[in-house]
Amino acid sequence: MADEHPLSREELATSLRGLSARYWDKHPFHLRLHAGGCSPDEVRAWVANRWHYQRCLSQKNAAIIANCPLPEVRRRWVERITFQDGTGDGEGGLEEWLVLADAVGLDPAEVRDERRVLPGVRFAVDGYLNFCRTRPWTEGAAAALTELFSPDLMADRIRAWRRHYDWIKPYGFAYFEHRIPVVRRDSQDTLALVLDHCRTREQQDAAVAALSFKCDVLRTILDVVDYAGAQR
């Protein structure tokens, strides 16, 4: 019989942080990407396919807000949409991702219209969006806790890309440079929300499962991009 006793805050935090081993930084494609082993076409494929994930982030954050009955949480969470979409045309994380696309030699218009997005990537990302639309807001928030693991990876990416891919135009790193301090703050806020609002063992187990699912989504993106590149 499963243990139904709620975890302490420390135990739940440890369980969530323990999923770092499932994060996509351990994926063979990511290891190769940071070691300088990817061709320009592989780097471009990663950027073009990651666009679909970037584009869906505001929609999944809006879904979390829509499912949340707490105004104090909604007020905090809406900042994520503003970061990604900006407050006007030509601003925000999405626009900076298109700048990255240009910096690696892609046509931003082709990235925006998603002609380069692979079906498996679309399936994985859309599954994540549907998860956040249909599950309790606490699970959507928990799934976002991959941000606990991402700041150091983004910092490593900037260093690795500058070292190994000098053909990438330097202005392309703006998204990562702007995102790192934001995600460091957001990750601690999100962890506190999950620890505060996941009080029953059922809620806590669901939060851990949600973060595990999100790790699977990210790794699936790399599986698809890596496989497609190997078939060329």
Q: How would you state the average pLDDT, rounded?
A: 95
CA(first)-CA(last) distance = 50 Å
> pLDDT under 50 segments (min length 5)?
none
Total strands: the figure is 0
Share of helix, binned:
over 70%
What count of structural domains?
Answer: 1
Give the biggest sheet.
none
| CATH class descriptor name | Mainly Alpha
CATH architecture tag: Up-down Bundle
Brief synopsis:
The protein has 232 residues and is mostly helical. It contains eleven helices and no strands.
Topology (SSEs and partners):
Blueprint: H1 9-17, H2 28-35, H3 40-67, H4 71-85, H5 92-103, H6 108-112, H7 119-134, H8 137-143, H9 150-164, H10 174-197, H11 201-230
Helix pairs in contact: 3-4, 3-5, 3-7, 3-8, 3-11, 4-5, 5-10, 7-11, 8-10, 8-11, 9-10
GO molecular function, one term: pyrroloquinoline-quinone synthase activity
Enzyme class: oxidoreductase
Family: Belongs to the PqqC family.
What do these coordinates show?
The chain is an all-alpha fold. It has one domain: Heme oxygenase-like (Heme Oxygenase, Chain A). It has eleven helices and no strands. The protein has helices at residues 9-17, 28-35, 40-67, 71-85, 92-103, 108-112, 119-134, 137-143, 150-164, 174-197, 201-230. Helix 8 packs across helix 10 (174-197). The longest helix is centred in the last third of the chain and has 30 residues, at 201-230. The model has no long low-confidence stretch (mean pLDDT 95). Belongs to the PqqC family. This is Pyrroloquinoline-quinone synthase.
